[in-house]
């Protein structure tokens, strides 16, 4: 069950990091998505926000 939840959260975070027109918008969206996934799966929202924000800012 934990692995299934992780995969769903990871897929959602990757999908949401692509939203936005500028790197700042994608970074903000990725940070929010990463924070939610980090809290739900690992109980670490700040780490999830950092990873999601970086992933969002680096996508094109």
Give a verbal description of the structure.
- The chain has helices at 2-17, 23-42, 45-58.
- It is mostly helical.
- The relative contact order is 0.21.
- The model has no long low-confidence stretch (mean pLDDT 81).
- This is YMGG-like Gly-zipper domain-containing protein.
Entry summary:
With 60 residues, this protein is mostly helical.
Question: Strands, helices and their partners?
Answer:
Blueprint: H1 2-17, H2 23-42, H3 45-58
Helix pairs in contact: 1-2, 1-3, 2-3
Report the average pLDDT across residues.
Answer: 81
Number of domains: 1
Q: State the shape.
A: globular
| Count of beta strands | 0
SSE arrangement, N to C: HHH
Structural class: mainly alpha
Radius of gyration, taken over Cα atoms and rounded to an integer in Å: 11 Å
Q: End-to-end distance, in Å?
A: 33 Å
* Count of individual helical segments: 3
β-strand amount: under 5%
Main beta sheet: strand number and arrangement? Answer: none
Contiguous low-pLDDT stretches (5 residues minimum) are none
Helicity range of the residues?
A: over 70%
């Amino acid at each position: 069950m934990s692995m299934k939840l992780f995969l769903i959260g990871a897929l959602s975070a990757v999908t949401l990091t692509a939203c936005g027109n500028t790197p700042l918008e994608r970074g903000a969206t990725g940070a929010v998505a990463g924070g939610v996934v980090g809290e739900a799966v690992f109980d670490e929202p700040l780490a999830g926000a950092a990873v999601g924000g970086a992933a969002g800012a680096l996508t094109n």
